[in-house]
Write a structure and sequence with these properties.
Length: 332
Amino acid sequence: MKCQLGNHEVSVAVAILGHMSLVNLPDGWRLAGIRTTAELLRAGRSATQITTMVRQGVLIQVRRGVYARAEMAADLATRPGGPHLLRTAATLATLGPAAASHQSAAVIHDMHLLTLPRAVTLTRPPGRNRSALAGVRLHCAQLPAEHLTVVHGMRVTTAARTVIDLARELEFRAGVVTADSALRKKLVTKPDLESLLADLPRHAGRSRAADVIAFADGRAESVLESIARVVFAECGLPPPDLQVWVGGPQPAGRVDFLWRKHRTVAEVDGLMKYGNPTRAVLQLERDRRLRDAGYEVVHFTWQDITENPAYVATTVRSAFQRAARTEALVRY
C-alpha cells in the first residue's frame, strides 16, 4: 500500500536505540514495551484487565491488537522519528517474519531521508500473504541472514541493504541523500555498498543504485548539501570539494563547497542561519574575509536549490567569470 510523502527532509536522531546482533529475543522484548493482545493474555491478563489498563492510561493502543506502555510511548513521541518507530515496532509485532526496510529502516538507523515516511515499510518473504494493512507498505523479497540485524527488538535490514534498497527504488537525489548520510555517520563504506550490490539479484533499479553509490560522498553534512551536489552535476558544473578550510595561512572558515580552480565558494543556507542575528553577522564577516582572500562567494537557499537550478548554475558560472577577471587583473 503506497503513500504520498511530504516534501520536506527528516533527520532522525534516535540515540535510545542500541544496535544488537541478530539473536532470538524473548517474546515482547520490544520498543516501548509493546505487546500484542495474545501476549498479554498469555501473561495472565484478561480482556477486561487490558481494557482497564488502557482506560487508566497504563497502556495505549498503537494499532489494533497491539499495545505499548503509555509512559514509554509518550517519551518516544517527543524524539525525532519516535512516532514512526513506535508504529513500526507495533506492526512488526503482528507480521511474523517481516523486517523493517526501506524508509522505516532508514529511520531506525538514523539516516537522512529526503521525504518523511508516512507508511511503515516492511519486507516479507515471497509467497506470504500480502493483504493490505492500513498505514503499511509491504515489499516481497528474500532477506539473507547477513542482510538483517536487530535494533531494540526490531528486525531490520542492515544499513548497507537499506541504502541499496532505497537507491534502487527512489529517484536519484533521494538515494544520494540517504547514501551520503550513511557514509557520513560511518554506518557503511563504499566497498560495503559495492560488494552488496554485486551480490544481489538483478533488479530494475540496479543501474541507478550503482550511480548513487559512485556519486555518494560522506562529506556532505545535510540533506540540502546532498541535493545541491546533484543539482551542480545535473547543471554541468564541475564537481566541487566539500567542507574545505580556505582563506590562507589563517583560514577564514570551512566552506560547504569550493571550486579551487575557479576560486569560488558556495554555501547552502537553511533558514536557521537567517533566523539567528548573531550567526548572520558572523556569516557576513566570514564572507568578507573570504573575498579579501580572493574568493568569490555565493549563497543558495533550499528554494534556490530545489526549485531554480538554472539560477544556481548561472550564479556559479558568473562567479567563475568574475574570479577569472580578477585573476587576470592581478597578473596584469
